[in-house]
Design brief:
This protein is mainly α and 267 residues long. It has ten helices and two strands. The protein has three domains: 141 residues, no CATH class; 87 residues, Helix Hairpins, CATH 1.10.287.70; 35 residues. The protein has a two-stranded antiparallel sheet with strand order 1-2. The longest helix has 27 residues.
Length: 267
Amino acid sequence: MKAADKRATPDRSAMARLRDTLRRLYHGRTPAAFRFQVAAIVIDLAIIGFFIATPVIQQSASFLWLDYAVAALVGADLIARLLASNDMLRLMKQPTSWVDVFILLTLLMPTALANLGFLRILRLWSLSRSGSIWRHFEMRGLRPWREASHAVINLLTFLFVITGFVYTFFFRNGAGLENYIDALYFTVATVTTTGFGDIVLPGMAGKLTAIVTMIIGISLFVRLAQAIFRPAKVFFPCPQCGLQRHEPDAVHCKACGHVLNIPNEGD
């Protein structure tokens, strides 16, 4: 029994060291952690680029190899983030983790879930909810642009999700770059309410798609305009009530009146 305990101890120690290393890399502020986080963001953007290009390249001979390689990267990142978390169960309950699990399933079963592949672009939304990317924004004094960046990412995610949906269900017979551009053109023309005459989705399903796209799209455009043009606010949780957004020169919390101590951008 004692021999078994001695053999188990190094294993637990190795796992603990691995988790500590991953925590430092994913959540640390050291130069090594910074380089790792930047590399992870670059890889994520490359994966998102692959998702956007998937409708065009999915007929190529090398597509499955790329698909499974991306699945390995997404799976490794998901496992690493779970190990780096102090509460794995809480992390798995978050919508971003659900999105990553769903994306991983579509990558592992590209044929069976081919019709749902357009939802992979939700990885962009998941990336926008990552704490590390916004931490770098704040380190460079770009905190006022955080909300506007969220709005831009939400709009881009919506545009590419709708484009993928339209391409998958209405332009499948003419697969290729030209038809993907047609699907993107239709989506942008609908969202911006500029109208179109040369590309119209057929049938009742097409009309309903256009209606839903216009309603959600114009809402996101309004949200983007609000984020860009309304006065910038800082993110600083009030110690008393938890309100996070305040005026840059606020002395008291407008919700509860608690005295704030908001640091300057250079601090």
